[in-house]
Amino acid sequence: MNLKRVMILLAVIFSVPAVEAQEVLTLKQAIQYALEHKAEAQKAKLDVENAQYLIDETKASALPQITGSGGLTYNPLLQQSALPGELIGRPGEIVMVSFGQKWQTNSVVTVNQQLFNQSVFTGLKAARTTREFYQINKELTDEQLIEKVANAYYQVFQLQLQKQTVQTNLENTRKTGAVIKGLVDAGLARKIDLDRTNVAINNLEATLQQIQNSLTLTENALKFAIGMDMDKEVVLPEETFDINASILMQSGNVNDRTEIKVLEKQIELLTLNKQAKKAAYYPTLSFNGSLGYLNMGSSFPIFANSDKVKGSPYSSLGLNLSIPIFNGGATRARINQAEVDLKKAKVQMEDTKLALSLANENARAQIKNSLLTVDANRRNVQMAKEVLDNTKNNYKHGLATLTEVLDAENAYADAQNNLNTSLLNYKIAEIQFIKANGNLKSLLND
Fold first, then answer.
1. What is the pLDDT of residues 307-344, one digit of tens each?
2. What is the mean pLDDT of residues 363-384?
3. Which H or E element spans position 56?
4. pTM
5. What local confidence, expressed as pLDDT, does residue 338 receive?
6. Could you tell me if 18 and 235 are in contact, meaning their C-beta atoms sit under 8 angstroms apart?
7. 80 within 8 A of 97, measured Cβ to Cβ
8. In this structure, what is the dihedral angle of CA atoms 234, 238, 243, 244, given to the nearest 10 degrees?
9. What is the pLDDT of residues 5-30, one digit of tens each?
């Protein structure tokens, strides 16, 4: 009795990690996980954060620039100048006199303030627009990630359905094989029928292993798509492939698509870039000032006696005005280049609008076709099931051959696989249709 309790306890202990390792994922949960953990989403968030730092950097150029500096100079040989001797009471001679001191120190604080600089003002506008661009680009990145995760998610689910179909077919074939073996043992059936059943079982087992291998790879692809550790197991809910025909009632405006908003911000940035090039035609005006102190003497000036080192403060205030006159047409060339870039962006936006309109119409048509195909395949599965049941019943009564039974089972499996494929195609078309209407984030509300 004690041994039995120990075995039960060990079974519970070793079963806990397996339960904790599994993650039951709905599509909404998979998308949320990806938006929090996937590298693309994290980098897009960092780009938005970095945009604020770009604004801070641009603002800094419009604020006073204050610097401090200091220097220590030693002059082993002082330069001499020739002076007429009359200046010192020695007429007719040329006297060589040294100017300056062996040691000197200098410390100064300077300030510079832009009073008018058109390029700085344009840069501030561009910085704010750049932040808005990265915010919209983050939304686009999130939508692209949602689409990628949804497609990977449904690929896993399709393979799981295929695996279930093959498993069910394998179980039914094994049951049929058991019945035939009993008939062979009783001398009521041929051994070749049992051999053919075993061959069918072996083929189904091989197919099941192939699907399992593909399922493992596809699950790993899904984990990578959402940024999940590979050692975690995922379980998808059974209701994932629900059909929603009312989706065709949705509609959207191409101009509301995030792709268009990104291009609009790009055009706005290129317009500001053109204005920044034009700013080279404007004069610039700045204020500058300095305050310093100069020490000179024959001895090392720091901590020296005041009779050996003398010093004095100094300061200056000024305005700097720069007026561009002629630079060989370089500014005009830069403006023309910026204008070409702006025109190209506008052409790209019109082409993108056309492409998005085409994608919208194609997605709507694909949804309609997918709904028809799913409905047809569901009816086909029902008919294949009825044929299989009738064929098995006829075989029991000697009215059908084993070949007909195996063919009916294969037909039923093919019908189920076709249904699974059509369901996947519908879901992929559904994702494309939701994307075409600019509503991919609605998947987070499901």
1. 678 888 999 999 999 999 988 899 999 999 999 999 99
2. 89
3. helix 39-60
4. 0.74
5. 93
6. no
7. yes
8. -80
9. 434 333 433 343 433 445 678 888 88
Work out the average pLDDT over 85-95.
Answer: 77
Closest CA relative to residue 167, chosen from 220, 219, 234, 212 = 212
- CB 67 within 8 Å of CB 113: no
SS3 227: coil
Q: What sign does the dihedral 135-443-227-148 (CA atoms) show?
A: negative
| Residue 135 banded pLDDT, cuts 50, 70, 90 | very high
231, two tokens: 């050692």
Q: Where in the chain is the domain with CATH 1.20.1600.10?
A: 23-63+117-282+329-445
Q: What single-letter DSSP state applies at residue 313?
A: E
Of the candidates 164, 155, 158, 160, the one whose C-alpha atom is nearest the C-alpha of residue 223 is: 155
Q: Yes or no: say if 104 and 294 are a contact pair by the CB < 8 Å rule.
A: yes
The pLDDT value recorded for residue 222 is 92
| Tokens 């085409």 belong to residue | 358
Token digits for 351? 């082409």
pLDDT tens track for 165-193: 888 888 888 888 888 888 788 887 788 88
Question: CA nearest 339: which of 275, 281, 280?
Answer: 275
Distance CA 421, CA 426 (A): 9
Relative to beta strand 284-297, strand 309-322 is antiparallel
Please return the burial class of 266, using the count of CB atoms within 10 Å of its CB with bins 0-12, 13-18 and 19+: buried
| Residue 186 Cα distances to 130, 179, 242, 330, 432, angstroms | 84, 11, 48, 101, 59
Tell me which H or E stretch contains 174. helix 118-185
**Count of C-beta atoms within a 10 Å radius of residue 113:** 14
Q: Quick one: DSSP state of residue 79?
A: P
Assigned architecture for domain 23-63+117-282+329-445: Up-down Bundle (1.20)
Pairing, β 22-24 against β 94-98: unpaired
Q: Is the dihedral of CA 187, 190, 191, 196 positive or negative?
A: negative
